[in-house]
Design brief:
Bound molecules: 1,3-dihydroxyacetonephosphate
Order of helices and strands: EHEHEHEHHEHHHEHHEHEH
Helix content: 40-55%
Number of domains: 1
CATH class: Alpha Beta
Number of strands: 8
Shape: globular
Structural class: alpha/beta
CATH topology: TIM Barrel
Radius of gyration: 17 Å
Length: about 250
């Protein structure tokens, strides 16, 4: 049975006290409402990882980074390595988010190196893929996602790829209030799973959780998560409100 997962991507939001308050609000909501068997991963800005992981460890959820370096260690000013994160008890990292691709020039090659770093140091990559609006309008979205998935993940063996989580985040849905329809999400998730089946076989593809991201909120999560191949969500804006985030966590049927 593959895992149901809801991950929160806080992006570059909140100063320290607000971030700590939000963490405790999430803890309160989870205590009150529970979380069923959904795995929860919160990805705050890097400077708050230590504070967050201390709180998470006591409250049964996990903390992930939003990024890590493609390099092992050494003279890379400003970078944070997978081994550093792992040594702080950080279990996951978002990799290849469209904002990193767009604003920081990350290519599939760089992202593939980051995936390798994460796996080498025992961390779980949350690998993001997804097309921009023009690509969907030109009906190139399947080709785009096929290329992204194959270039960043398909050098991995069966065992390594089984450690990964994939997030389909159509760029036109991120932060826009325009969500992919339930049918569009299911169609792309089934496509991604079919790529994994083709490359690695059913046993592997059926075990990999594929999350949906892009204007997913407390109102639309249940419909999205009801799809056979949608195993949860990677949540941006709605992850900044404790009640909304925990409502999403509890949106599985
Ligand atoms: P929104 O939920 O704000 O659209 O962001 C999605 C996202 O980019 C999560 O990584």
């Amino acid at each position: 049975m593959r895992k149901k997962i809801v991950a929160g991507n806080w992006k570059m939001n909140k100063e320290f006290q607000d971030a700590e308050d939000l963490m405790f609000e999430i803890v309160d909501e989870l205590t009150e409402k529970g979380s069923g068997d959904t795995e929860i991963i919160i990805c705050p800005p890097a400077v708050y990882l230590e504070m967050s992981s201390d709180i998470a460890a006591e409250n049964g959820f996990m903390v992930g980074a939003q990024n890590l370096s493609q390099f092992d260690s050494g003279a890379y000013t400003g970078e944070i390595s997978a081994s550093m994160l792992h040594s702080m008890g950080i279990t996951h990292s978002i990799l290849g988010h469209s904002e990193r691709r767009t604003y920081f020039g990350e290519t599939d090659k760089v992202i593939a190196d980051k995936v390798d770093q994460a796996l080498k140091h025992g961390m779980t990559p949350i690998y993001c893929c997804g097309e921009v609006l023009a690509e969907r309008q030109a009906e190139r979205h399947f080709d785009v996602v096929r290329n992204q998935v194959s270039e960043a993940l398909f050098h991995l063996g069966k065992e390594a790829v089984s450690q990964c989580i994939i997030a389909y985040e159509p760029v036109w849905a991120i932060g826009t209030g325009v969500t992919a329809s339930s049918a569009q999400a299911q169609e792309m998730h089934a496509f991604i799973r079919s790529l994994l089946t083709e490359k690695y076989g059913m046993e592997v593809s059926e075990e990999i959780s594929i999350l949906y991201g892009g204007s997913c909120n407390a109102k639309n999560a249940a419909e999205l998560f009801a799809n056979k191949d949608v195993d949860g969500g990677l949540i941006g804006g709605a992850a900044l409100k404790a009640a909304d985030f925990v409502a999403i966590v509890n949106s599985f049927q």
